[in-house]
Amino acid sequence: MKSNHIQHLLEINLAMLFIATSGALGRYVQLPVPVTIGSRALLAFVALFLYCRYKKFNLKIDTKDAGVILFSGVLMGVHWVTYFYALKLSNVAIGMLSIFTYPVITAFLEPILLKTKFQLAHLLLAFLVLTGMYFLSPSLDFENSYTIAICFGVFSAFAYALRNLVLKKKVEKYNGSVLMTYQTAIVGILLFPFLFTISPNVIIDQWQVLVALAILTTAIGHTMFLMTFKHFNITTVSILSSVQPVYGILIGAIFLSEIPKGTTILGGVLILSSVVIESFRSKKKT
Prior knowledge:
Blueprint: H1 2-28, H2 33-55, H3 63-89, H4 92-98, H5 102-113, H6 120-136, H7 145-171, H8 176-191, H9 200-205, H10 207-227, H11 234-240, H12 244-256, H13 262-285
Helix pairs in contact: 1-4, 1-10, 1-12, 2-8, 2-10, 3-4, 3-7, 3-8, 4-7, 4-12, 5-6, 5-7, 5-11, 6-13, 8-10
Domain EamA: 14-136, 148-277
Keywords: Membrane, Transmembrane, Transmembrane helix
Protein name: Threonine/homoserine efflux transporter RhtA
């Protein structure tokens, strides 16, 4: 049991490392946000579909689940688009950290939507995450793009929290790769018309970063993340995943030379503290 718990913690950290590449890649890609997300989703769909066929996963879903999966796909699209706008308007640190209001949002929504027991500890840990974010965020000034970026990030966080809660019970029924196949298909279809707003050559010129977003960040990272839903409740997952912006900031520092300030390091320490505390708490429950 102990080794399984450690394995599950390692899995969610690896998933967060893969997903954290979205920050640097989102800043690096030189395409309109809807085009970037639409291309990313379609490429990820192809990769996931082929993988599911290779593994012989059953791609059929019950009719009664179609509405929930469709709604979760729309939420995923909203999350991706608003998140990438946050990245474009600020930097990796602000873009990624602003969406990590979602543990707080999740802590409030989970008892309501999934009828789980309200836990004060989750709110306290989420507050610790927010305190860490405070040290990384700039002063709020509605005349600069950073404030707008934070607003996009918080809205993205709401969509992400709601999507995770909506899919919680479906992960117990369907394989994570199958669910991500449908999610990427939905996002790809919704944003497909935007691909005709620019020259195909412009999109092709960015194929390396789009493939990285599709395979590394989406197909691998988000599928692994969905699979962790089987082992932890959604609020626990959301708090454990708060290590993601720390990974993202490190990747941004290495590849984009966006060196964090002293306050950024302090904020990262507070966020990591919440992850460590929740790791021990979830271990005791297991």
